[in-house]
Fold this protein.
Amino acid sequence: MFRVCRYEWCWLCGSTYTSLHYVNPFGCMGLQAGGHTAKNWGWCKRFFYRLGIILGMLIALPFAVVFGFPVFLCAVTTETRCYRRHIRHTGCCIEFLFHALLMFPLGMLLNVIVVPLAIVALPFILLGILIQYCIERQKLKKRSQELLKRHRENN
């Protein structure tokens, strides 16, 4: 962050820093770990890294859509029933298997309802995230410009 205008920028890639900066696949995703920067990671390496992330997401998406809700349902019911009483009870393992065998098929049946709802809601959620990102970026630029202008008037 610059001291005068309080402009926040990413020291890895040089672009405007927002709260969604490292999540954005077109930002500097992957550069924040260790000594990776835009200078020592060429554009080609960054491009293929981002392409790999996006392709990996596209490959994993069908599995997440089909098995995500059933696994989530199993985890929630198991957690609320078993972990309250601690795992040291032997009956908890049997109860876990019972819930997993009962809740997983139930979750697969409920997928018929949940997946279409998620498909309908997903574009709106992504649009909201994109709008939030753009608004935050504009606020940062406007604030920085105002502070820089004020600093120039004072000097």
